[in-house]
Amino acid sequence: MAIKCRTILFATDLTDNAAHALEYALDMATRYQAKLHVLHVMPEMDARVVNYVASVIGEDQFADYELAHEADIQGQLKERVKQFTQGEVDSLRINSGEHVSIEVCHGQPVEEILRRAESLDADLVVLGSHGKGRMHYVFLGSVAEKVLHRLNRPALVVPLPRG
To answer: What does the DSSP 8-state code read for residue 160?
Structure first.
């Protein structure tokens, strides 16, 4: 049975390990000539904090700030993708944006990753894992672990490199 991989979802939190995991996502996209969808979820702020900040600086100014912040994150993602792809995956035509898309959204990271995996009908989901040890997972859990428990499609979890 041949594995077909047309769409890869790479969820990133913009950490160093996410940059490491991006290398794997790009390699898989290159091997399978798949479309790579890069997703960053900005966690929603508590409603009380949003209301307070909006009342202090004004709703319009707060909305403008949120849009600017989202554009900044999207720019960071595009720059990171370019850094890792320069000269390595010309066959994906990354500079034209034809095979790589970047999305920044607000929400709960686990829910948004699961939602996008379904809406894209992703054949593979790539996530980085911080690997902070067993006690971290017992008390706090992790986005990668929570996604894996609920995901109904193949996933690749890339641990933080040691050394």
So the answer is: P
